[in-house]
Structures are given as structure tokens and as C-alpha cells.
């Protein structure tokens, strides 16, 4: 593709500013591969996530928001590990060569990249249906990563921010209603600093991409334990205030795309939650407790069981 090189040059122009001495970039965009410096005593943490148009974001999402979201979901994986994100690889599959589209896409990407001091060090540009694949690389002190496997009976279950807003916004959009909360779907905020702060305190951590019950399930299976969730304690965004109770709980329990952190932590650290909440200006809600008995039990305010309707978004669910 003749125009491929022009697009790459454009991307390079729009990003060159951030690769200073502190970035650890030995060799960035322009060679066959990037070279970065991993300081002694630190380990490299890597994650990759692909966003396809119409699947991971509505077709009408602005290029700026797509640029934000595809980086945000990858930074969210770094946050869930407690890692400091440093370097990004960006693979773009584009249906056409559109410099204006790429410019706004990169503006959204760069705004978030600069806020988190991460450097774009390479990628790939091809023609095809709109799809963006990002690889994020970060650093963590050797052996200190947060994993899914350390939850213990008695640990508190804590979630950042609010739940269900992105799913609600998507559903309103799909039924033809412009959603006031569309930013919850388009502009998830990766909880990068919170994740780093949880290192040494949280017993398990995951980011919520597929819905609370689905992602909590991953922690429970890895940690070989169960959980009780108090549905009345699930944090709700403003837009869910007017929604009927059980529908609201379903959004909060099963809605995807919130990219909040879900972690377990000993009650010994309870007082730290308020400190962190103030420090990062993020809501932190204790929504339940880890139990010995496997499975998840949701309870209503009156103490009776609540059975959620579905456990989250799964690709290929309707295709088997
Ligand atoms: P190669 O053919 O060796 O894979 P390319 O022509 O694909 O090289 O890429 C040339 C350079 O531009 C490489 O350093 C690559 O990492 C970078 N690059 C290509 N596409 C992107 C992109 N979308 N974002 C950032 N860097 C890119
Ligand atoms: Mg290539």
C-alpha cells in the first residue's frame, strides 16, 4: 500500500514529542522493531487487546474516542496488574487512507498517552475492516504483580468508580436513544495509579471488562473460593438512578465495558480505602466478601437471594 508510509509518517509526527530520555525508548518508530530499556530489578508486563468496529465500539464512535478507548482498555490491563505502563505498539487496520481520521484518532490516543506518560514505539498499518490492536508494555518490581489468584475467605471485595453505566449507554444507543452517559461507554478511565497503589495490599485484582459477575468469577476460580455480593452496595452512575431496581442490578452485575478495578483486600486495610479514595478522587465501594464456599451469592437488601439474568458479555456466544 503506497500510502501506508505517509500514514506512518503522520503517526510518527504526531507522537515524536513524548520519546524523551525518561521514556526508556532506545529505538522507537522507524526500524524493524523497537528497543526499550528494562531497568535491573524490574520485570516487563505485557498485554494486548483488539477493538473491532461494531463489536467493541459502535460504528458511529468518533475517531478521537476510538483512539482514547483502544489505549484505555490496554492501560486498564496494566492497572489490574499493578504495573507502570511505559510503551505501546499500535496495529491499525483501516478501510481507507483518511489523514483526517488518523489525525483525530491520534489526538485521542495521544491525550491519554501523555496523561499516563506512555510512549508509542511502533506498530503496523494495514488495509482492512476498521480494527485497532494495541500491545501495552509496563514495568513492575520483580514478583510484585497483582494477580487473580490470591483472594482469601474474609477478604473484602472492592470496586472502583461505578458499574453498569457503559452497558446502559450502549443499550440506549442501540434502541435509538442518544444517551447522556455516552462518555461512560466511549471514554473509560483506566485506574492506573490506583492499581499501582494496591501493590502489596490487594490479595487479587482484575479489571472489569466483561461485567462484574464474569470478572469476579475469574478471581474466584483462580483463587479457589467463592463470594457474597450485596447488590444494594453496587455503586451506580447518575444515569442509572431512575432505572427500575432489578434492571439496574442487572446492568451493574452483568454490563461490560466499565473498566473499573475489582480487587480483594484484607479488612485489616479497610482504613486505607478512604485514604486512596481521597487521594485519587475515585469512589471505592466494598460490595461483598470472599467466602470459602465456591460460587457467587448475590443478596438483596432484605437478605434474600438475587439471581442475576446473565453473567456478562461473551464473544461467539450466539455463534456456536
Ligand atoms: P516492517 O515492514 O518492517 O514491519 P513497517 O513498514 O510496517 O515495517 O513499519 C515501519 C515502522 O513504522 C516500524 O518501526 C513500525 O513499528 C512503525 N509503524 C508502522 N505502523 C505503525 C503504527 N500504526 N503506529 C506506530 N508505529 C507504526
Ligand atoms: Mg509491517
Walkthrough of the structure:
This protein is an alpha+beta fold. The protein folds into two domains: 138 residues, 60s Ribosomal Protein L30, Chain: A, CATH 3.30.1330; 144 residues, Alpha-Beta Complex (Phosphoribosyl-aminoimidazole Synthetase, Chain A, domain 2). The chain contains nine helices and twelve strands. The strands form three sheets. The chain has a six-stranded mixed sheet with strand order 8-10-7-11-9-12, with helices on both faces. Strands 3-6-4-5 form a four-stranded mixed sheet. Helix 3 links the parallel strand 4 and strand 5. Helix 2 runs parallel beside helix 6. The two termini are 36 Å apart. The structure holds adenosine-5'-diphosphate and magnesium ion (MG). Adenosine-5'-diphosphate (ADP) binds next to helix 1, strand 4 and strand 5.
List descriptors:
9 helices, binds magnesium ion, 2 domains, Phosphoribosyl-aminoimidazole Synthetase, Chain A, domain 2, alpha+beta, single chain, four-stranded mixed beta sheet, binds adenosine-5'-diphosphate, six-stranded mixed beta sheet, globular, 60s Ribosomal Protein L30, Chain: A, 26% strand, 320 residues
CATH architecture group name of the largest domain: Alpha-Beta Complex
Compute the number of strand runs.
12
Number of helices: 9
Count of domain modules: 2
Lateral arrangement of strands in the main beta sheet: 8-10-7-11-9-12
Q: Mind telling me the CATH superfamily name of the largest domain?
A: PurM-like C-terminal domain
Averaged pLDDT, please? 93
Unreliable segments of 5+ consecutive residues: none
Write out the distinct hetero groups bound to the structure: adenosine-5'-diphosphate, magnesium ion
Amino acid at each position: 500500500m503506497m500510502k501506508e508510509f505517509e500514514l506512518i509518517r503522520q503517526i510518527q509526527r504526531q507522537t515524536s514529542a513524548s520519546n524523551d530520555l525518561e521514556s526508556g525508548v532506545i529505538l522507537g518508530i522507524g526500524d524493524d522493531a523497537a528497543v526499550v530499556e528494562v531497568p535491573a530489578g524490574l520485570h516487563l508486563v505485557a498485554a494486548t487487546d483488539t477493538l473491532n468496529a461494531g463489536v467493541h465500539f459502535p460504528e458511529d464512535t468518533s475517531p478521537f474516542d476510538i483512539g482514547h478507548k483502544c489505549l484505555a482498555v490496554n492501560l486498564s490491563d496494566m492497572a489490574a496488574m499493578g504495573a507502570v505502563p511505559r510503551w505501546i505498539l499500535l496495529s491499525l487496520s483501516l478501510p481507507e487512507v483518511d489523514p483526517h481520521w488518523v489525525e483525530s484518532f491520534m489526538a485521542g490516543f495521544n491525550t491519554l498517552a501523555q496523561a499516563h506518560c506512555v510512549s508509542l514505539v511502533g506498530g503496523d498499518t494495514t488495509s482492512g475492516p476498521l480494527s485497532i490492536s494495541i500491545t501495552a508494555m509496563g514495568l513492575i518490581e520483580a514478583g510484585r504483580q497483582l494477580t487473580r489468584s490470591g483472594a482469601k475467605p474474609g477478604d473484602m471485595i472492592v470496586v472502583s468508580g461505578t458499574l453498569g453505566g457503559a452497558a446502559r449507554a450502549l443499550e440506549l444507543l442501540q434502541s435509538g436513544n442518544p444517551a447522556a452517559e455516552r462518555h461512560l461507554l466511549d471514554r473509560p478511565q483506566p485506574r492506573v495509579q490506583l492499581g499501582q497503589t494496591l501493590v502489596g495490599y490487594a490479595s487479587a485484582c482484575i479489571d472489569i471488562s466483561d461485567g462484574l459477575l464474569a470478572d469476579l468469577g475469574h478471581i474466584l476460580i483462580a483463587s479457589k473460593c467463592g463470594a457474597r455480593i450485596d447488590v444494594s452496595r453496587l455503586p451506580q452512575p447518575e444515569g442509572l438512578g431512575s432505572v427500575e431496581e432489578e434492571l439496574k442490578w442487572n446492568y451493574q452485575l452483568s454490563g461490560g465495558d466499565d473498566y473499573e478495578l475489582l480487587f480483594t483486600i484484607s479488612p485489616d486495610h479497610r482504613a486505607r480505602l478512604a485514604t486512596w479514595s481521597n487521594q485519587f478522587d475515585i469512589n471505592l465501594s466494598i460490595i461483598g466478601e470472599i467466602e470459602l464456599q465456591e460460587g457467587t451469592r448475590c443478596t438483596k437488601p432484605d437478605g434474600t437471594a438475587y439471581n442475576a439474568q446473565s453473567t456478562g458479555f461473551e464473544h461467539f456466544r450466539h455463534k456456536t
